[in-house]
Structure formats: structure tokens, C-alpha cells
User: Which sequence fits this backbone?
């Protein structure tokens, strides 16, 4: 089984608030992304209701105006974490949810808050209230996927693609579910459908190609996997996971010198990404560069130690 680097955090109270904002910002055809300006409606025009100090309020307004979303996200989340169960935290997270959506982060940039059960209940309530909105069904499928309830997620996703047969991420998630169940042929079929639809988008996502490549690697179809990864990088050259997987493919083909560059790029783009360092260590060892091999393995162990210390 290929271990995906892209994993969703399982305790996502902000998801509910994000999804509530999506109900007004997202069009009924969920495979379409609304213009950025329309998403500003998810952020309060009068941020005084958030209970921020004058300096914080001015900074937040300034960052949003400049479209510097990440500092604005962090400001709101830090404030919410001061008292995460309060009504004020809910208001702060609602505003943060709008900015997360504005910033294009969606689920993968949500903040770990330890309130998954509450979030799921609220999402189920929203899905019941708006049964024709496939977006809520999709987020529920994501909850199932995160909880390793792959059969349940597949059932939800199969319903979704009947309602919205052009929803790229639904097919991509179907592929992931089948992959984790070991049903690689079904996984590849759904990834390929996601890729067909993805190529028609104004701004294609690299993820269906990266996910398909991981399954192709498991099936030892390395040439096809390399092609998919290079296409993914043509959509987003700054995606560390695509560089890492490309390095894996090249290493598996015995193309050690070629594999070094994408692995170095992956570790440069994400300095908390441990796996590229481990693979670089193995490659340098094979190339006879024991000094570089030791440096990479030491760096891998250092990153892993830090990650384990915060779990």
C-alpha cells in the first residue's frame, strides 16, 4: 500500500463553518469554483463583531484588502484557540472558514481543533437541510474517508457522481477509497475519469494525477506513473508531493542521478517533509556518497523526531 503524504486532519471543527459559508458562495454545480470576489461575502464586513482589539482588527482588514490571506487566517485561528469552545471562537472560525476558501485551501488547510464529532453532526444537519447540494455529501464522504470508513465513503460518492457527473474531486476521492481497499483497477478507473474532467477545467488540479501515479507505482507501471507526475507538475510546479513521487519513480527505475533533483526540490518546497530526505539518503548511499547519505538520514530522523513530539 502506498502511503499518501496528503492526509486530511481528522478533527476539523472549522469544516462545518467553512461549509456553511460555501452554501452561499458555491454554485449548485459543485465542480465549478466561484470567482474570488464572490467569496468575500463569507467574511464579515464589520469585523468588530469578532471581538478583536483595534490593532488586530486593523491588521486583519489590511491583510484581507491586500489579499494576504495566510496571515489573516493565522490571526483568526490563534484567537479562536484561546477559548475554542466559546461562541466567540465559532464567529472567529466562521470568518476563518471564508478566508480558507478564499485562499483555495479547502479541507487540507483546516486547523486541528479536536471537535470532529461536533463537526460531523453539523455537516449531517446541513446535508439533511439541503439534500440537493452535493457539496455537503462530499464533505461527509471526506469524514468517512478520514475515519477509514471507505465502504461508506464509496456509497456516498457513487450517489454524488450520479447527481453531479462532472465533480472531479468526487472521482478522485473514489479512487483513493478503492486504493486503500486494495482494489487498484477500480481506483485507476476513477482516477482516469477525474483526470479527463480535470483537464477540462480552467485551472486543472495536479492531485488526480499524483494520486493515480501512486496507484500505478503500486502496480509497477512506472513509465505511466512518471508521465502522470510530469503532467501534475505542469499544473503546479511547486507541489512537493509530485516532486517526491517523481523521485520515487526514478529511483525505482534505477535512474539515481535523475532522482536527486526532484527529491531535493520536494524537501526545499516543504522543509517539514521527511520522506524525501530518507530516499535521498538511500540514493546517495547507492551512488557511493556516504557523507551526503548520512546528512540526509540525519535530517530525516530530525524531522520525524519533531513530528512525533507534537502528536
Assistant:
Amino acid at each position: 500500500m502506498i502511503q499518501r503524504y496528503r492526509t486530511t486532519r481528522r478533527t476539523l471543527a472549522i469544516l462545518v463553518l467553512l461549509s456553511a459559508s460555501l452554501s452561499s458562495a458555491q454554485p449548485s454545480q459543485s465542480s465549478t469554483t466561484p470567482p474570488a470576489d464572490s467569496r468575500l461575502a463569507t467574511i464579515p464586513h464589520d469585523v468588530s463583531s469578532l471581538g478583536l482589539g483595534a490593532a488586530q482588527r486593523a491588521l486583519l482588514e489590511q491583510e484581507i484588502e491586500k489579499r494576504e490571506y495566510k496571515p489573516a487566517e493565522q490571526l483568526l485561528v490563534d484567537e479562536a484557540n484561546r477559548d475554542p469552545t466559546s461562541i466567540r471562537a465559532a464567529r472567529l472560525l466562521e470568518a476563518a472558514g471564508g478566508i480558507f476558501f478564499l485562499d483555495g485551501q479547502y479541507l487540507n488547510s483546516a486547523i486541528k481543533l479536536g471537535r470532529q464529532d461536533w463537526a460531523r453532526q453539523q455537516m449531517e444537519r446541513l446535508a439533511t437541510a439541503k439534500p440537493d447540494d452535493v457539496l455537503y455529501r462530499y464533505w461527509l464522504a471526506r469524514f468517512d474517508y478520514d475515519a477509514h470508513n471507505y465502504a461508506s465513503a464509496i456509497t456516498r460518492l457513487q450517489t454524488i457522481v450520479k447527481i453531479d457527473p462532472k465533480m472531479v474531486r468526487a472521482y478522485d476521492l473514489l479512487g483513493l477509497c478503492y486504493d486503500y481497499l486494495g482494489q487498484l483497477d477500480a481506483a485507476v478507473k476513477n482516477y482516469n475519469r477525474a483526470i479527463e474532467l480535470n483537464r477540462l477545467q480552467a485551472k486543472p488540479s495536479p492531485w488526480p494525477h499524483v494520486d493515480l501515479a501512486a496507484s500505478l507505482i503500486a502496480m509497477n507501471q512506472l513509465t505511466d506513473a512518471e508521465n502522470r507526475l510530469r503532467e501534475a507538475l505542469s499544473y503546479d510546479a511547486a507541489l512537493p508531493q509530485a516532486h517526491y513521487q517523481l523521485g520515487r519513480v526514478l529511483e525505482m527505475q534505477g535512474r539515481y542521478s535523475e532522482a536527486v533533483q526532484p527529491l531535493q526540490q520536494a524537501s526545499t518546497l516543504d522543509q517539514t517533509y521527511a520522506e524525501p530526505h530518507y530516499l535521498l539518503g538511500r540514493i546517495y548511499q547507492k551512488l557511493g556518497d556516504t557523507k551526503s547519505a548520512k546528512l540526509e538520514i540525519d535530517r530525516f530522523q530530525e524531522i520525524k523526531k519533531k513530528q512525533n513530539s507534537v502528536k
About this structure: Residues 12-130 form one domain. The mean pLDDT is 80.
